[in-house]
From TrEMBL:
Name of this chain's protein: NAD-dependent epimerase/dehydratase
Pfam families reported in the protein's UniProt record: Epimerase
Similarity annotation: Belongs to the NAD(P)-dependent epimerase/dehydratase family.
Ranges where the NAD-dependent epimerase/dehydratase domain occurs: 4-247
UniProt source species: Candidatus Enterococcus palustris
Amino acid sequence: MNNILITGGAGFIGSTLANFYSKDHKVTVIDDLSMGSKSNLETTANLCFIEGSVTDHELMTEVLTQTQFDYIFHLAAIASVADSVARPLETHQINFDSVFQLLELVRNNQFGLKRLLFASSAAVYGDEPTLPKQEESVIRPLTPYAIDKFAAEKYVVDYYHLYDIPTSAVRFFNVYGPKQNPESPYSGVISIMMDRYKKLLNKEATTFTMFGDGTQSRDFVFIEDVIQALNLIATSQDSLGEVYNIGTGEAIDLNKLVSTINDLLEVDLPICYEEERSGDIKHSLADISKVKAVGYQPKYNIKSGLEKYVSYELANRDKEGLDN
Ligand code: UD2
């Protein structure tokens, strides 16, 4: 049984990872519940939840001096690019300073650590148009969010080379699946669509706002494949000091995405077209050969991932209906 710390562990990706590991391991979750929710976490004796911020130095010192962890997943972040443009200093404290502070706490206290895995983002590639993105492609971070992710990622990798701290980093492409919070306008687009589909099925008036003409494309990766990749990277010796893209290696445009979900649910989602978002990247696609070399094989393409997501949402909707 390993001891695992997951920061941001009540959020979408973090809670799925926490529920996955808490079946067989002891998991500690730290989350300030700014985007995540305690209800995402399964109740088990193996899981300990701490409400707090990764920027709270006293709290982080206490946690990292009291327990020796085998694995640390640092997923806590303000994931909104727009928020980082509006509040660069505040988001820098969470997206960069917390990582640096964690690295130092690990260097000074975590002597048996097997891996510290840091969640970075495809945002580091910016708008340079060459596709698919390889880990060694041109890096052009354009926003405080992307700059912080890239700088933090560099420190994480460097701590392996300089101090022999076992680290790895991942660059998430567009992750989707159950528990993704659709509340913010900068939430993952599929979670926003799913929210509108649910309203439509409940016969409420709704429209999905498409920014641009819907020809922009993304490499959408289903959460279960992300968990597979994180587990493989965290446990592989070849991934020490390395950075990996996590995607599927296939992209789909938003129009096709809507028509695929329309077909699945046998409805027609009303769409209202607006100006494209400023700073929006037209196309994004991961080259996943590097992560495949540690054993990753995506199990879901966009169609089968959406099928699973939709059936989860429909089952939940029925449950909600019964509860009311
Ligand atoms: C993703 C990440 C972001 C950053 C970025 C790097 C998510 C949720 N966000 O942003 O954190 O890493 O990649 O490039 O994974 N859209 C609509 N209507 C809506 C919402 C979105 O048309 O209501 C469009 C949006 O303008 C964009 C596309 O959908 O063209 C995808 O948007 P997103 O926010 O899900 O993800 P992205 O790729 O902009």
